[in-house]
Polyketide cyclase
Amino acid sequence: MIVILAISSPKYYEISREIIIDKPVSEVFNYLKYLKNQDHWSPWKKKDPTMSQEFVGTDGEVGFTARWKGNSDVGEGEQEITAIVNNKRMDTELRFYKPWKSTSNAFLVVEDLGKMQTKVAWGFFGKNKFPSSIFMLFFNMEKSVGKDFEEGLSNLKLLLEKK
């Protein structure tokens, strides 16, 4: 039975959402490249406003790492900036330690649409390793995490368009 579940379980995942923000690409990207700013728009900070956080390095630069320990909704982990292409994209590695160990690659991609508009794509992808891959047969990550990405992007839009 376990062998059948392991064979039929999803091996990879990728979830992303997009939104259009009525601000120029340089302004949007300059805000997004700072991980500490995620506290103002990410839905996970709302899920545990008292989570402990630690920061290592210079925010907005490759190598900057944000660590957190929170309640069961946010768990424990860290996010490290791995690449920045100015006014294009920022890549990070997400390392989760609790409630289960996993590593994902996350991204924020911006696209200049002209007319003072920027499309923002936020997402992450990775590999489902055994035995956690079996759990993915019963957990709809697209629906669950996708909902959080939609909420976060809506918060980001409201925040940046108020400026």
